């Protein structure tokens, strides 16, 4: 029988949650790296026991941890993230130039082909790659150097590269997203990049055709259809059918189109999930009701998923990397909250139950479907 | 031998005791002590000094012989009592945050 392994990164350590395919009874392992912020951890698609974790602290900086046994044991690997060449400057919050400074790794994306190749999205925004299992890291500096970098500026959480999507059918194509610069694409494995933000509208940017400056929160794709992208922006849920060349809004009848995560059903490429949040200054669910919204039509028409989720007095947030979907049938949907809950739905969102209720604030959730 | 006292999270990371004893060849300075520490415990690289700039991390302080040495130049000699091993060199995390 299949198993699932959920990897939860929190403000005070990493937790590994495991269950059989029923996804009803759970074992909880952790905290790993207790007391440290674990922004993200993720497993290799080709070697599921190879995991990478981003471990950081305000005192001791950034570490990268690697496991070769599914998270039972870990070893620190390389943590030298050096920008290529002269780092240059981006915009600070007040519009003045501010030098690029490495702060932390937000997201680790292992290669679908090689367990020793892994990408790291960092703050201040840049993309790094390791091809030796995390021992050494090289910047793919064509992104930061493509020309618009001086116009990038940090969102409230910092100027972070938080989303990395590797096209499963084209090893040269990578999508990334930066708050608050926008989405970018390479078609030559990271040598050259261009912004893909046409159609995004951001009230705080006076130029309606601005190439960069958009606060993209998350992008998702279905592996069977990598040219179709779904985006949760600062405000607005967006869709692209041409690999990001153009975007159109699909917020439809959502109660609010602000939010952070977005994800796609494992077997239905037009079924997508978001968690609406009241506003950019009120980071909690509207009306105190924690609701996942599902669209089976690729956007526009949404249904609230509430069974098993708190429908009163709930004021948690769900961060951008804190939703994941397994590949069982029916697929499991998972998300973690800033209140320390990790919820699972074993039936694609119809009913929910907490796996754990009292972890530290959850920063990220990933899931592995194991044979 | 030079004695270095590590904060708890770095002890855990390095799988080391609270006090670490190091052999330092040549002048005993912040730089030579930290170089020896990182050579023995490579996983500590970047946790005390920035990997690229080699600057002390802002929330860490260096103490010895009841003196704050954090702002001393990295190549300044440490007190004789540290060099002789009579007194330890403390690496201390700021009391801040949760």
Summarize, please.
With 371 residues, chain A is mainly β. Chain A has strands at residues 3-10, 13-20, 27-32, 37-43, 51-57, 61-67, 75-76, 89-91, 97-99, 104-110, 118-123, 126-130, 138-139, 160-166, 174-179, 182-186, 194-195, 216-221, 229-233, 237-240, 248-249, 258-264, 272-277, 292-295, 303-305, 323-325, 333-336, 342-345, 353-356, 362-370. Chain B has a single domain (2-93), classed as Roll (Ubiquitin-like (UB roll)).
Written account of the structure:
The complex is a heterodimer of chains A (371) and B (98). Chain A has strands at residues 3-10, 13-20, 27-32, 37-43, 51-57, 61-67, 75-76, 89-91, 97-99, 104-110, 118-123, 126-130, 138-139, 160-166, 174-179, 182-186, 194-195, 216-221, 229-233, 237-240, 248-249, 258-264, 272-277, 292-295, 303-305, 323-325, 333-336, 342-345, 353-356, 362-370. Chain A is an all-beta fold and 371 residues long. In chain A, the strands form 8 sheets. Chain A has a 4-stranded antiparallel β-sheet, with no helix packed on it. With 98 residues, chain B is of the alpha+beta class. Chain B has helices at 8-14, 30-40, 80-83; strands at residues 2-5, 19-22, 60-64, 67-68, 89-93. Classes of the chains: A mainly beta (371), B alpha+beta (98).
Cα distance spanning the termini of chain A? 7 Å
Q: Could you name the ranges of chain B where pLDDT drops below 50 across 5 or more consecutive residues?
A: none
Overall CATH architecture of chain B: Roll
Number of beta strands of chain A = 30
- Spatial order of strands in the largest sheet of chain A: 3-2-1-30
Mean pLDDT of chain A: 96
For the largest sheet of chain B, list the strands in their spatial order: 2-1-5-3-4
Helix content of chain A: under 10%
Defining traits:
heterodimer, A: 371 residues, mainly beta, four-stranded antiparallel beta sheet, globular, B: 98 residues, alpha+beta, Ubiquitin-like (UB roll), 22% helix
């Amino acid at each position: 029988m299949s198993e699932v392994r959920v990897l939860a990164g929190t403000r005070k350590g990493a937790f590994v949650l495991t269950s059989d395919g029923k996804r009803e009874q759970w074992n909880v392992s952790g905290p790993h790296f207790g007391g440290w912020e674990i922004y993200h951890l993720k497993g290799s698609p080709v070697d599921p026991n190879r995991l990478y974790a981003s471990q950081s602290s305000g005192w001791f900086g950034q570490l990268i941890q690697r496991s070769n046994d599914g998270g039972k044991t870990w070893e620190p690997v390389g943590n030298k993230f050096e920008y290529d060449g002269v780092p240059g400057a981006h915009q600070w919050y007040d519009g003045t130039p501010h030098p690029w400074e490495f702060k932390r790794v937000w997201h680790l994306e292992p290669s679908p082909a090689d367990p020793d190749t892994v990408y790291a999205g960092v703050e201040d925004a840049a993309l790094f790659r390791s091809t030796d299992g995390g021992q050494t890291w090289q910047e793919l500096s064509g992104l930061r150097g493509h020309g618009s970098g001086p116009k990038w500026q940090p969102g409230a959480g910092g100027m972070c590269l938080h989303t990395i999507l590797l096209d499963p059918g084209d090893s040269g194509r990578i999508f990334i997203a930066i708050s608050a610069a926008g989405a970018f694409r390479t078609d030559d494995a990271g040598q050259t990049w261009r912004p893909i933000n046409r159609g995004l509208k951001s009230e705080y940017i006076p130029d309606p055709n601005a190439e960069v400056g958009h606060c993209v929160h998350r992008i998702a794709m279905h592996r069977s259809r990598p040219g179709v992208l779904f985006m949760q922006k600062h405000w607005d849920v967006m869709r692209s059918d041409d690999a990001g060349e153009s975007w159109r809004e699909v917020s439809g009848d959502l109660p609010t189109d602000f939010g952070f995560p977005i994800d796609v059903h494992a077997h239905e490429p037009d079924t997508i999930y978001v968690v609406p949040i009241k506003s950019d200054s009120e980071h909690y669910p509207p009306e105190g009701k924690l609701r996942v919204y599902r669209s089976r039509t690729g956007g526009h028409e949404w249904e609230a998923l509430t069974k098993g989720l708190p429908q009163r007095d709930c004021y948690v947030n769900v961060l951008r990397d804190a939703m994941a979907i397994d590949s069982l049938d029916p697929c499991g949907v998972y998300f973690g909250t800033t209140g320390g809950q990790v919820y699972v739905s074993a039936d694609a969102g119809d009913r929910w139950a907490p796996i754990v209720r009292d972890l530290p604030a959850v920063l990220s959730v990933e899931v592995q479907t194991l044979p | 031998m030079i004695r270095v006292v590590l904060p708890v999270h770095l002890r855990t990371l390095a799988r080391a005791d609270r006090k670490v004893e190091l052999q330092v060849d040549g002048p005993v300075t912040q730089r030579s002590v930290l170089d020896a520490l990182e050579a023995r415990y490579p996983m500590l690289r970047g946790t005390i000094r920035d990997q690229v700039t080699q600057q002390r991390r802002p929330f860490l302080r260096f103490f010895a012989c009841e003196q704050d040495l954090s702002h001393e130049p990295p190549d300044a000699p440490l007190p004789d009592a540290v060099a002789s091993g009579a007194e330890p060199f403390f690496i201390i995390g700021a009391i801040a945050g949760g």
